[in-house]
Amino acid sequence: MSNFLKEFREFAVRGNVVDMAVGIVVGTAFTSIVNSLVKDIFTPFIGLVTGGMNFANLFAVLKQGATPGPYTTLADAQAAGAVTVNYGMFINSMITFVIVAFAAFLLIKNINRLKNLHHQPEAQPTAPTTKSCPFCISKIPIEATRCPACTSEQPASEQPSI
């Protein structure tokens, strides 16, 4: 039993498990922020644009309840026991999803931008493409066997200079 507890402790304090736990807690807090953003900020604007329509009250009645309709709100229909398709709630969920996805995109994009600021790859030195003629100091291609300026032969063992 002692070996089991030792293995469990090693598993529980492993970096990945702790990171995952922190991610879940932060994700839960982020979800409540996004839900408030959608419900308290974006939904009123969308309602204003759509003429005050409340998506939560968009539904279709499949079967009348004990009290026959028409029902003005989803709560009235549910209180009457009506069977409804709540497509307005689906629209709200889709809006929430799009906002969450967009917020996550912006978050990841900024994290990557900050990560790239600190981890800029060092420029790789490029191989030189020219060398100096030892006779007239003109720049000539590395592969040249004669200098185009002074027509001198270039030594084969000449190391290119930058």
Name the descriptors:
single chain; mainly alpha; 2 domains; two-stranded antiparallel ribbon; two-stranded antiparallel sheet; 4 helices
Describe this structure in words.
The protein has two domains: 2-118, Non-ribosomal Peptide Synthetase Peptidyl Carrier Protein, Chain A; 129-156. The chain is built from four helices and four strands; from the N terminus they run H-H-E-H-E-H-E-E. The chain has helices at residues 2-12, 15-49, 74-79, 87-118; strands at residues 60-63, 83-85, 130-132, 139-141. The radius of gyration is 35 Å and the shape is elongated. The relative contact order is 0.07.
Brief digest:
With 162 residues, the protein is mostly helical. The protein has helices at 2-12, 15-49, 74-79, 87-118; strands at residues 60-63, 83-85, 130-132, 139-141.
Mean pLDDT across every amino acid position: 82
Binned strand content: 5-15%
Given this structure, which CATH class of the largest domain is correct?
A: Mainly Alpha
- CATH fold-level assignment of the largest domain: Non-ribosomal Peptide Synthetase Peptidyl Carrier Protein, Chain A
Poorly predicted ranges (pLDDT <50, ≥5 residues)? none
Shape: elongated
Number of helices: 4
Spatial strand order of the main sheet: 1-2
What's the CATH superfamily of the largest domain, by name? Large-conductance mechanosensitive channel, MscL, domain 1
Helix content: 40-55%
- Number of E-state strands: 4
User: From the 3D coordinates, which CATH architecture of the largest domain would you assign?
Assistant: Orthogonal Bundle
Biggest sheet: strands, sense, closure? 2 strands, antiparallel
The topology string of helices and strands comes to HHEHEHEE
Question: What integer value in Å does the Rg equal?
Answer: 35 Å
Q: What's the domain count?
A: 2
